Amino acid sequence: MKITAVSVWTVVVPTIPGRVHSPEYAEKTGWDEVPKHIIRVDTDTEYAGIGETGRGLPIEQVREGARLLIGRDPEEITPQDIFGRRAERAADDLTVGTGPAYDAYEMAVLDLVGRVRRLPVHTLLGGAVRDRVRADYWMGHQTPEDGAKAVERGLRLGFTGVKIKCRLEEPMYERLKAMRDVAGPEFKVTVDPNERFYTAAQAIELAGRLETLGNVEVFEDPIPKTDIAGYEEIHRAIPFPLAMHLGNGEGVVRALQADGGRGVVDCVNLGGSMFGFQRNAAVAAAAGLPCWHGSGNDLGISDTSFVHAAAAAPNCTMASDFVGGWTREDDLIAEPITFVDGHVPTPMKPGLGCDLDYDALQRYTQQHEELN
Amino acid sequence: MKITAVSVWTVVVPTIPGRVHSPEYAEKTGWDEVPKHIIRVDTDTEYAGIGETGRGLPIEQVREGARLLIGRDPEEITPQDIFGRRAERAADDLTVGTGPAYDAYEMAVLDLVGRVRRLPVHTLLGGAVRDRVRADYWMGHQTPEDGAKAVERGLRLGFTGVKIKCRLEEPMYERLKAMRDVAGPEFKVTVDPNERFYTAAQAIELAGRLETLGNVEVFEDPIPKTDIAGYEEIHRAIPFPLAMHLGNGEGVVRALQADGGRGVVDCVNLGGSMFGFQRNAAVAAAAGLPCWHGSGNDLGISDTSFVHAAAAAPNCTMASDFVGGWTREDDLIAEPITFVDGHVPTPMKPGLGCDLDYDALQRYTQQHEELN
């Protein structure tokens, strides 16, 4: 079998107004105007695999990745290192899982190989260790009133918790109180200001006020991650778990070595490609830390790949966010991800288990090209 | 496909006299009188998979593992967690890769699945990232004269380095000098007393004497691993890399958090099942540490599984030891592992790529039973 071509759709899918932020805080997300690329890796057989890039990735990187794959036999590709040239690797070259548009092509190659072998992608990652993956509802910056309405919507969809974006200047106590009044203290809130609380003292003061509400799950990235002394202070002082959002294992090791080797996190929000996530989760697991999978308001294929990655990571027991399905006008896959009781069933179809919705794709495509 | 039976051979294969220790230091190894179990997992098809336990594993554990697998479809087993019952897993159960005779059954199940899918086992681990795996010659406690002769033998076999067992009371300087006189300073020696140097001061003093020889690769486990303060002292003082032999990621994290979060190792000798090794290596990789794969004078199947595991770990760039082939009277596999220029070619046949030598097996079997 040979990879013969890569089809690329450059798309922009708007978010649903009000679904991310309350208009009082931000009229538009802005980021939903940044293009993404949907790719389909074709072969000389009936098999193909699909993938999705991150926002704003230069198309030249997609073209470069295609050049590295076209002509190759997908069965001969090293799954954890799809662009690696095994035979040519220098003895001290430890870089794997990198290269142009890596994450998108990893999705597509594993989707393709999984379809050929009639295996779900998680089997190629070491295998699912659970039949369903925890997932929370998600929203951006919302007023207490809008937040309460959003939580009502999350409850109707079966979610048991929510992750919120926020800043100190917003009515934090009122927002979490409004959510608790709607859903009770068991419906947990992950507080993620994306490093926007300026100082450790502010984060600790806020934590003290929120504690009485009883519905905080975790504080994520309260202050800039460069302020390790601040994390040490927060970690010692706050009554609930402290997390960092980390894209690689090096970051996890830094967090574990902080505070004189005692570490500053109780859990981690992890990213990385599907194999990269397994490696990053293994680092957290070795330190006894649970983790969850982050996301970026994606378009269905990425979210699905996150579910496979989360299902295969033993310590991915916290609520991940697979968000695109309810924040975007369309998710570009034929059957959207389903949520049942705050979980996503582990996909069991061959490959990623999702298919492109070509009608939707056509609606949102700004540019299409075929590389071969 | 169903697993229908497990065949178990309990074997004792003696070492070749003098090949491990000089008779002056130890007349026999002793451990070669401790039985191992060779297992074959049979199915209702022509496919089977083979595995090997560690020394001295109670046979009841082999029987218990068989009970957990018989009747199951190997294609439905989670590769990284072969005894896991995915659907029944509690939300907070993070234990994977454990259970009775885990390592041996993991070998056998992956061998079986690899044969069915016509894929080498490393592909199931994420894929080989290199076409050959570094490996060193190996010996036990040898006099300077015997050590020099052993190095000559290692050189004839194409090795570029050697790992030695030792204690302070042996003529360490004379032994390494004899090796250097035979092979030059480029032929490196891994000094592994298995925690038998009593104090940090002794290890540092010895390192100072050996430094002038120029042929030390690394100091491994010089003192008891519980003496972390001692490791901190050694790590700051010695002129070559310091390593620990660690069986799991928790141990690696402890070593990284030592010395106030600065860490006390420059590289690690890792063990674990094949998937376990990938996880452990990922922890070391996140800290920027290279690693190698340990071994235990095994009988061919285990050694082969180590080669697959090492080939799939990006940071496994140091010389591993796959030793059984030259220390034991027989390795019980039909075609022994080959060494070329201090490397083992990455196996590319389906499954583990090694087959049982039934004639040899019969010669060394003390007990045979068929579980079904």
Topology:
The structure is a homodimer of 372-residue chains.
Chain A: E1 3-11, E2 36-43, E3 48-52, H1 59-69, H2 102-117, H3 121-124, E4 132-134, E5 137-139, H4 144-156, E6 161-165, H5 172-183, E7 188-192, H6 200-211, E8 216-220, H7 228-237, E9 242-246, H8 249-261, E10 267-270, H9 274-286, E11 291-293, H10 301-311, H11 324-327, E12 343-345, H12 358-364, E13 365-371
Parallel strand pairs in A: 5-6, 6-7, 7-8, 8-9, 9-10, 10-11
Antiparallel strand pairs in A: 1-2, 1-13, 2-3, 4-12
Helix pairs in contact in A: 4-5, 6-7, 8-9, 9-10
What does this structure look like?
The structure is a homodimer of 372-residue chains. The radius of gyration of chain A is 21 Å and the shape is globular. Chain A contains twelve helices and 13 strands. Chain A folds into two domains: 3-118 and 358-371, 2-Layer Sandwich (Enolase-like, domain 1), CATH 3.30.390; 132-345, TIM Barrel (Alpha-Beta Barrel). Helices cover 34% and strands 17% of the residues of chain A. Chain A has helices at 59-69, 102-117, 121-124, 144-156, 172-183, 200-211, 228-237, 249-261, 274-286, 301-311, 324-327, 358-364; strands at residues 3-11, 36-43, 48-52, 132-134, 137-139, 161-165, 188-192, 216-220, 242-246, 267-270, 291-293, 343-345, 365-371. Chain A has 372 residues and is an alpha/beta fold. The mean pLDDT of chain A is 97. In chain A, helix 6 (200-211) packs parallel to helix 7 (228-237). Chain A starts with a strand and ends with a strand. Chains A and B meet through helix 8 and helix 9 of A and helix 8 and helix 9 of B.
